Target: histidine kinase
Amino acid sequence: MTPETSSLFENAACGLLVCETDGSIVQVNQTFCDWLGYRCEQLVAQQRIQALFTVGSRFYHHTHWAPLLQLQGAVSEVLIELKTHAGDTVPMLVNAVRRTSDGHSYDHLAFFAATERKSYEQELVKARKSVEQSLTHLRKVQNDLKENQNFLSLAIRSAHMGVWTHDMVLNRIKFSQELQELTGLYHSNLWQQPSHFYKSIHPEDVTVFREGVQEAINQHCEYEVEFRLQHASGEWLSIVGRGHATYSEAGQCITIFGIFIDISERKKSQLALANAHRQLALADRKKDEFLATLGHELRNPLAPIRNVLELMKRNTEQHPELSWYHDIFHRHVSQVTHIVDDLLEVTRISQGRLELKKQVVDINEAAQIAIESTKFFIEESQHSFEITLPDKPLMLEADSTRLTQIIVNLLTNAAKYTPPGGHITLHVYATTEQAVIRVKDTGIGIPSEKLSTIFNMFSQLTPALERAQGGLGIGLALVHGLVEMHEGVIEVRSPGIDLGSEFEVRLPLATSQVVDKPKSQPTHTDKAAPKRILIVDDNVDAAESLGFLLEFEGHSIECANCGEDAITMAEAFRPEIILSDIGLPDINGYEVAKQLRNKDWAADVFMVAITGWGQKKDKLLAQEAGFNQHFTKPVDFSELKAVLRNFSQVG
Model:
């Protein structure tokens, strides 16, 4: 019913009712309710019109009015008496017409107050017009209702929904036409036994459905349950049921109304999405395993190369021409090591496994180290380098190593993607609450469509790679991750191709302006006291080259290339220090350490793991096996010497 027709019906000058042929009131307007002193809900579906008549009028209705209405289909200007809610008698004139729609008959009644017959007759013409107008609007309402029902049915079908009704008094369940089409469960008798319906619910879901609906009845609230319903074809549909109950004045549940929504396609999509997530997680895990293995395989050959470079360095005084070769090899080995470390660290950041060692540091110190680290690369490319640093300390709460790494990667990136003879600017300054690191270049620039993905792992600029030194696309991803871990932000700007780029990092300033100075370390002699050292590595070159270096330091060296040989040699050699790889051809380095730790003589042996496996879990495994120290290949020989020196001091 539209708002217009509803207003006309409710506020008509006469009392309007729609009744079943047995007198049950289906619809009543406010005018009639006001005359008799009832509320609408006290009459609709609760009373028959005959119950409102006096005894005499009820008899007249039974003997005259009702038979005439059935025979003629209409009754005009019948005078009857009605009882008000307060018990008073009110005379009224009634006009009635019986109409049939969709095979169902309804009586449309119009009542007029007739306290004075004469007054009624004077206004009869007006009343008749009002009744005709009201009946016309009522018919329009019925047509609108039918049209709305058609639209509603279309909407319900389109949404894969259907309506169900459970008459609790008759204990019958009814499916709407849409729900029958949805489930394929057609019934010649629309009302069916609840037991038939429950047989269609998956046995595992019957209890869930019953309890969900019952709880809603008890709590006088809406219910929502998810269950499986069997289609007539045998297929199980995933259904969400929502609805509520209606109650009598005594609080007894009369009817349960609800809709069933078919979510089978959504469930299939969710299942497909879950499978995709599992496949993605599996691929991600395999990627991590591959990167870890790649790092191990790349680090292993780097170890003997770095050892040989260290040996070469010792001969540069006698053979100065070796210095040039040494410097070239050393730079490129360091670059490969840097790439491997970046590759593994960006993976650890994405998994949340990289930990920062924060302290209050001066960003100037980190910038100076970064400048020294990249100076040769920038000069080699013949770039001019403009540097602007703060005149006074600028304190951040940061991991100094990672802070340097951020600046190094940005400067390296600028040098790499700027053609020879370009200009690079490093500007570090402070705002009110932030430190700003700005690196600008005159390089190949970044297309606008690439700006949003430039920090993605393995992001590449093509065809820019054809005009630059290229890379794996991990440096900026690592920078982005490290900046976020420091609660900062990084932005990139570029006017376009061949117009250069600018990266700006903003990091929060430290609340304290006092630098955390590292604890001073006691001074040591240059060399550790001579020790018996057993080197265990299946890479013969790595073992022998490290052995040569340690012999130069005055130590006694033995080398083993498998785990079993290491245990046998240790029994005879009784080393004070063991440097062991983990991946060995027979038993691994963890097992070697465990077996030796069980021997009385080896309880105080200083064991160092030197391996290509460098993740946090690898260090924990080494510690649990009995190793005192863990180094990731290729080990910096100066760091190894420092550890041996400390052991000698303690020992």
Notes: The first helix runs from residue 3 to 10. The two ends are 98 Å apart (CA to CA).
